[in-house]
Write a structure and sequence with these properties.
470 residues, mainly alpha, two-stranded antiparallel sheet, 6 strands, globular, binds fe (ii) ion
């Protein structure tokens, strides 16, 4: 089961060779994927040797292989965690019954929608980030960008494997559609809003990997609980790779914060921008933007879709086994709701509140990251605190999207919002300034003016390692 046949066209631990029909179907999809990668993946750099990790198995130590590879030659494979014997549904109406190895007919559409929605985010993020290779602040960062990109490509493979294997013709059509939609395209956009916003510079890239990839962690974790066993096993292994993406985001922002503090102290006036850095108030605005866009990805606060997916045993909570009760009939979640234009604190039937339950776990995780950034600021002896805005602030999805709120969660009218928006979110001038800083740095071990070097190199290597061969 865990042996990987690396001489196969598609590396895998699912015995693809044992199912010739499926193997042929995926081998037919593979060139379409490569075409998409060449057309919509990273601009430039495709013929360069990049020091990348490749998943070669699911063994805890030894799943990753590091070496130089040209991106189009990356070995995108299919890896599922091994099947647990006698696994039962851990939650929902089928709790305690054996998990499913095939798609249950009555939940087929719901399951397909969950898989396609998750799958769509993977190529979308590659498209959003495709131009960033031109302006990387260091070779270390350039390599990290490509690592994230190739792994998002592998996550697309993970979802396409499920579609091809379990959904017949519809699944094959969905797999083609996943390569046909385009981030930000007016006619064929990606499914979710935040995945249609371009990641136009590196500060946004770090915020994206901090906040939006972290949404991915929570979505994948709740699908890793699924009673549809192949989905659970696929998502569990994806989470292993996802951890590095969030590291890139959190440590990336931390280095920008550190640099801002250093520059504040260097210059008597504390003018960070005058010295080619990104000041802390501007970092706060980008935090506000990407955090609020990412909160939207959890969906409506009160949701019958979430209730249905839980009842069916398809999508659970984050780390379901931490909870005592797994059916959630008759229990409630206490949360803010909007009724008649006013905010009330109310008990909502738990199953309907599951998007909010997951969002609440996500917010705690984000807060831990922000706390670590604030520790960096304190260690630099600078007096400033980064904060997560209220979950009501700048929402496009859900009940709070109907009204306007300040970052501290106070309701305001439209005119006030318009007048004050640029205090809270990046203005056009901020965007112009940040983009003006985005000059590539290709000298080994050197960093752009606006970012501190990483605390240590990748995989035990020095900072001045040749992460990308020029
Ligand atoms: Fe992913
Ligand atoms: Fe990711």
């Amino acid at each position: 089961m865990s042996t990987v046949l690396t001489d196969e066209k598609i590396p895998n631990n699912v015995n693809l060779a044992g199912d010739k029909r499926l193997q042929r179907a995926l081998e037919a999809w593979q060139p379409h994927f490569i075409d998409w990668w060449k057309q919509m993946g990273p601009v430039g750099w495709q013929e360069r040797d990049i020091y990348l990790r490749t998943a070669i198995s699911v063994e805890t130590d030894g799943w990753a292989h590091f070496d130089y590879v040209k991106m189009p030659d990356y070995r995108w494979g299919i890896f599922l965690e091994p099947k647990q014997a006698n696994r039962n549904h851990g939650f929902g109406d089928f709790q305690g019954q054996p998990v499913w190895d095939e798609v249950p007919g009555e939940f087929r559409n719901m399951l397909r929608r969950l898989i396609v929605t998750q799958g769509d985010t993977e190529p979308a993020s590659v498209e959003q980030q495709r131009a960033l290779g031109a302006t990387a602040p260091s070779l270390y960062d350039l390599r990290n960008l490509f690592q994230v990109n190739v792994e998002e490509g592998r996550h697309l493979w993970a979802m396409v494997y499920l579609l091809h294997t379990y959904f017949g013709r519809d699944g094959r059509e969905e797999a083609e559609e996943l390569l046909a939609r385009r981030s930000g395209d007016a006619d064929k956009p990606r499914i979710l809003g935040a995945f249609n916003e371009p990641t136009s510079h590196w500060l946004s890239f770090f915020m994206f990997t901090m906040f939006t990839d972290r949404d991915g962690k929570y979505q994948l974790s709740s699908l890793a609980e699924s009673g549809f066993d192949p989905l659970a096993r696929t998502c569990r292994f994806m989470l292993t790779e996802e951890a590095h993406h969030m590291f890139v985001g959190e440590s990336g922002v931390q280095r920008v914060v550190k640099r801002a503090c250093e520059l504040m102290k260097q210059d008597g006036s504390g003018d960070v921008r005058a010295q080619g850095g990104i000041d802390l108030p501007t970092i706060q605005k980008y935090l506000n933007l990407w955090y609020s866009l990412s909160l939207d990805l959890f969906g409506g606060e009160v949701s019958s879709n979430a209730a249905d997916a839980f009842a069916a045993g398809l999508k659970g909570r984050y780390k379901e086994d931490r909870y005592e009760e797994h059916k959630l009939v008759g229990s409630h979640f206490s949360m803010d709701v909007l009724e008649g234009g006013k905010v009330f604190h109310k008990d909502v039937p738990m199953r309907n509140a599951l998007n909010e339950v997951l969002r609440t776990e996500y917010i705690k995780d984000c807060q831990r990251g922000v706390d670590r950034w604030n520790k960096t600021i304190r260690d630099e002896r600078v007096s400033f605190e980064l904060v997560l805005p209220s979950a009501k602030f700048h929402r496009q999805i859900g009940m709070w999207s109907e009204l306007h709120f300040t970052p501290s969660g106070e309701m305001i009218d439209e005119a006030t919002w318009r007048a004050r928006r640029d205090e809270w979110l990046p203005s056009e001038a901020d965007e112009v300034y940040i983009k003006s800083l985005m000059q590539p740095v290709h000298e080994r071990g050197k960093m752009a003016s606006w970012i501190a070097p990483p605390a240590k190199g990748l995989n035990g290597l020095p900072n001045d390692f040749e992460y990308v061969r020029l």
